[in-house]
Amino acid sequence: MNTAFHRGRRLRQKAPLRALVRETSPLLAEDLIMPYFVVETGDRHFRKEIPSMPGQFQLSLDELEKQVEAAPELTSVLLFGLPSRKDDKASGAYAENGIVQQAVRRLKASRPELLVITDVCLCEYTSHGHCGILSADGVVQNDATLPLLAKTAVSHARAGADITAPSDMMDGRVAAIRQALDAEGFVQTPVLSYAVKYASAFYGPFREAAQSAPASGDRKSYQMDPGNAREALIEARADIAEGADALIVKPAGPYADILHRVRQAFDVPVCAYQVSGEYAMLRAAGINGWIDEKAALLESLLGFKRAGADMIITYFAEELLKQKLVR
Ligand code: PBG
Ligand code: ZN
What's the pTM? Predict the structure, then answer.
């Protein structure tokens, strides 16, 4: 009998041996970014669970502050805002006292060492729910949207945001934001660009959480077509040329191949965004006892690291840290 075949099992016999030869280091607490939804409301104790995202909440400023204080292991957060009023110009997005701007000031006061990242987009603030300004005939206007995104990013930086993260997918927005930040003296504020963002069904629960679903139409004229992989590299290259300091690939799970390609093609830090739909699926299966939720979650996150992610945005971040599932 020929026994000269490859014996992969030799190096799998014992835990310390498997650890020695493991190619991807385990997830670290400092790799994780936790998203929060903060609501502009007169009710200081407002705290509402998001039906499609069990365990995630819409929070008032006070509740957000409490939530973050109760998670001292958390090093980075990503903020989304729900304004009390919406209009066709997304005024709430760049209001100096807008909800995200207030939230940044709060968190910076209570947890100065916390890294605060802000999502820069208009869809939570427009009455029509699109990520940009609409023309009279309902087309999302690219160039007219750029100054508003730039104003939004500057207002976040002025409030104390450490990083601005544009998610709108307008062309040229990284350059517009970089220029505006520099002009206002925020040369040191990085831009973490959602460079590679697909038009995905996996954003469904988020749109309930952020009340940002488009009133009519979809986002396919600005977000990427799921069939395209080479285009991801074009988008990434453009954003780096415009001054992006790091890139996000989104969603992460169904697009791990894209994560890997972007990692191979570019040298900037890359972030995987495990989106709301990915959260909802794991959580639902976990709640029903259909899957070992913790094990499946850690395996998913390890997959993002193996694909090349330096950092991960996940709604599980807070729980992972609290339950000491990562160190
Ligand atoms: C806003 C934005 C969205 C997400 C992040 N920023 C929604 C969208 O583009 O429709 C999705 C996040 C998630 O699903 O977890 N542009
Ligand atoms: Zn948007």
Answer: 0.96
